[in-house]
Design brief:
Length: about 350
């Protein structure tokens, strides 16, 4: 055993392999058989013989309950993740979690490993399940980050109240200096409050985020939350200012988000029945942003404005443009219906 460990420390993998195999062949009932099998599996992994490594490590994991058998199960969890084998990863993790003699550290290792993998794959249901499991056993210096991932998973699943609760708890344990994900946590709080209709709280959360993290890579989203909150409260002039800040922000300028903001400015005027103003804003979307979805949405609304202004021929021209030139748009059917309601003006391309 000692010779194998010495060769292993020197990274003499083939020599170590020979020593461990010899020990297991000559002394199959030795007290050192499980440690030798564990180390043999580890050496095989270093040699990229993954199938043999996992086979030997599984034999150790299924041996009589000892600290070593759970250490083997933890290692199998991590190896299965590296090999992209979700079912085995989850199976070995559950094996560790259900073991009565498993330590909190071992439970933490496997639950966080699976949770992090699910986050990478954007499998949010699994991420939420395993990050919640990890949160219960996380070391003190890791708990805040794990809680962030619980909040993020809840947000991605539309569980906004859970997200709010987790971020507020997170704010009580946020380390100093604030970690890189802290700004995202604040954004999720603001967005979730907005989705829940708690507009004043959403405004406050977004304004606090903008003040604390003005250089955040998605800082334009603070303005977006502010704009939507103002709009839903009927404060249209304030909403327009905030939407314009989204458009002007260097990280969102020219992006689909900016196109959405331009379209929303048109919506604020439409709500106020200022049809000529709304029309100008909608037409800017088609002119400035090469995104067919938002071009079609803007032309549809612009057509409605022309109808309200009694200029039905111009409305028909815009509907026809959607039908003929933006045929893949989800707004084509609506445009076609409105065109037919106006008497089918113009030639529809088939």
């Amino acid at each position: 055993m000692g010779q194998g460990e010495l060769a292993q420390r020197r990274k003499q993998w083939q020599a170590a392999l020979g020593h461990y195999r010899l020990l297991l062949q000559r002394y199959p009932r030795s007290a050192e058989r499980h440690p030798a099998a564990f180390q043999l599996a580890w050496v095989l992994w270093q040699l990229d013989r993954h199938a043999q490594a996992t086979e030997h490590m599984a034999q150790v994991a299924r041996s009589a309950p000892t600290p070593l058998n759970l250490q083997a199960a933890v290692q199998l969890t991590l190896w299965s993740r590296k090999l992209g084998r979700w079912d085995q990863t989850q199976s070995w993790a559950q094996f560790v979690i259900n073991a009565p003699h498993a330590t909190a550290e071992q439970k933490w290792q496997v639950s966080y490993a699976i949770g992090a993998w699910a986050v990478e794959k954007q499998q949010w249901e699994r991420a939420l399940q395993w990050m919640q499991q990890a949160l219960g056993v996380a070391p003190a210096d890791q708990a805040a980050e794990v809680r962030f991932w619980v909040a993020e998973s809840a947000f991605q699943l539309g569980k906004y109240r859970q997200c709010v609760d987790q971020v507020r708890k997170l704010q009580e344990q946020l380390p100093s200096p604030a970690p890189p994900w802290a700004a995202t946590a604040q954004l999720r709080l603001a967005q979730s409050l907005l989705e829940l209709g708690e507009l004043r709280s959403a405004l406050l959360a977004a304004q606090q985020g903008l003040k604390r993290w003005p250089e955040f890579s998605r800082a334009y989203m603070w303005h977006w939350v502010v704009a939507v909150a103002f709009m839903r409260q009927g404060e249209f002039a304030q909403a327009r200012k905030a939407f314009q800040q989204v458009i002007n922000h260097p990280r969102s300028s020219g992006t689909p988000r900016a196109a959405m903001a331009q379209w929303m400015i048109g919506e604020t005027y439409l709500h106020q029945r200022q049809y000529r103003q709304a029309l100008r804003q909608y037409l800017r979307v088609e002119l400035l942003y090469p995104y067919p979805k938002w071009q079609a949405a803007a032309l549809l609304q612009a057509g409605k404005c022309y109808e309200k202004l009694g200029e039905v021929d111009k409305a028909a021209q815009l509907y026809l443009r959607i039908v003929n030139h933006l045929a893949d748009s989800p707004f084509r059917a609506q445009a076609h219906q409105r065109l037919q309601a106006l008497g089918g003006r113009g030639q529809v391309q088939r």
